[in-house]
Design a protein that fits this description.
CATH topology: Helix Hairpins
Helix content: over 70%
Number of strands: 0
CATH architecture: Orthogonal Bundle
Number of domains: 1
Structural class: mainly alpha
Number of helices: 2
CATH class: Mainly Alpha
Shape: elongated
Largest sheet: none
Strand content: under 5%
Radius of gyration: 19 Å
């Protein structure tokens, strides 16, 4: 198996784990915030709260991810400059 294939599989596994963790965190955080008393059906206010909570959480995670990628790229450029 080529190194590129291994790297692609590792990246896919990392992304899958990240998404699984993200879904778990969103579920835990938003459930705790929005659901006062678990029942068979959600009330309208709970549905609205969950939607808003999930949207906010995803927006924040996108910003964090963007900053992380920027920082990694900057570090890679610095390392490349030092090694050149």
């Amino acid at each position: 198996m080529a190194q590129e294939d291994v790297q692609a599989q590792l990246a896919q596994l990392t992304q899958t784990q990240f998404l699984s963790t993200l879904v778990t965190k969103i579920t835990d955080q938003c459930f705790s915030k929005c659901i006062k008393k678990p029942r068979h059906n959600l009330e309208t206010g709970e549905q609205t709260c969950l939607g808003s909570c999930m949207d906010t959480y995803l927006q924040v995670m996108q910003e964090v991810e963007k900053e992380f990628v920027n920082n990694v790229q900057k570090q890679a450029k610095l390392i490349q400059a030092v090694l050149s």
